[in-house]
User: What shape does this take?
Amino acid sequence: MTILKISSFAAVVLIIAACHSKKKATTESAPAPVAKSTTGIFAPGEEELTAIKIKFPDATLPALTEGHSIYTGVCTNCHGAKSIYRISEDRWPAIIDNMASRSKLTVSQKDALTKYVFAIKGTQPK
Assistant: This one.
């Protein structure tokens, strides 16, 4: 009978310790911040969506994500990635117009690419 009581007590202690350690881990661990690329080429998030809505109120996160896919796919397949940060905002429209016609982007793809680039420029570090 004493062995049964000791075993039961030990089991209860282990369960309490396990529950306590899990609770502590979930409340204390926060997701690590994602470092953004120094070139401005990264997947857009809520910060970029908020920034682009000033210029393009109809922008959506799926459209920005599509623009990112175009930039890191179609664009970089021809000439490699160009730093979005290094090119001034006033030069981007002409570049996008020229490259969109060369790469035969649809109007929708060009729109997504434009919004992506301007969203990234809108959150560019000073």
